[in-house]
Amino acid sequence: MSTLPSFAPDLRAVVVGAGGGIGGALTAALAGRGAVIGLRRADLDLTDPASIRASAAGVDGPLDLVIVATGMLQDAGGGPEKALRDLDAARLAHSFAVNAIGPALVAQALLPRLRTDRKTAFVVLSARVGSIADNRTGGWYGYRASKAALNQLLRTAAIEHARRAPLSVVAALHPGTVATRLSAPFQRGVPADRLFTPAVAADALLGVVDRLTPADSGGFFAWDGQPIPF
User: What number does CATH give the domain 11-222?
Assistant: First the structure.
């Protein structure tokens, strides 16, 4: 596809999480489209506000596109919690730090760097399981709750940002199930046509970003552009 034709030709983009599967594919897809800065874990620690501020300060602006392609489903303590008895306060706090608070602080640092005279976008990778309305199976407490918190933080930021930059889009995106390290333990049983390579996911996500308009700001969308209820 022609990458992001709805954006100006002199695109300046930042991908946070460029060292991950989807983030790396997004960075590669944007490389031929304009100036793209890829921030990796070595550059920016989502659990450290000072690291986020320092990394943002090193980014030349103004910007047209920021994509936060980060997330944590499990850690050294184990996989997603399947029942209330599995909850652990420290693991819950870490999930919120990585999946919600960190991206919100990236928004705090980089949303003001977006241009105001043309279409721009700030998008984060969320997850369908973060939808409260769509939760019919339970389980995955920390991941669900932290992604739901991310969605609310982003929607609130979108309302505020629209007052400053009415041509901008702020949105949460669900990439589907992508063949990355994050999803590796949970790919069994996923139909082959619903297990995407990072390159396919990146192409689909950029297509969604290209089609979004300011009227969509604050929304939550799947890889195919379909809205997801909060």
Answer: 3.40.50.720
Q: What is the residue extent of each domain of the chain?
A: 11-222
Give the position of tokens 């596109």.
Answer: 65
CA–CA dist 36, 12 (Å, integer):
6
Which of 198, 203, 206 has the alpha carbon at shortest distance from 181? Answer: 198
- The dihedral of CA 71, 145, 175, 31: what is its sign? negative
CA angle 94, 155, 204 (to 5 degrees): 85
**Averaged pLDDT in 10-residue chunks for the chain of 230 residues:** 85 96 96 92 95 95 96 79 94 96 98 97 97 95 97 98 97 90 58 78 97 98 97
The pTM score is 0.93
CA distance linking residue 208 with residue 173, whole number of Å? 9
Using the Cα atoms of residue 77, residue 83, residue 85 and residue 90 in order, give the sign of their dihedral.
Answer: positive
| Residue among 212, 162, 177, 190 nearest 21 (CA) | 177
Q: Is 164 in contact with 116 (CB distance < 8 Å)?
A: yes
The residue with tokens 């308009």 is 213
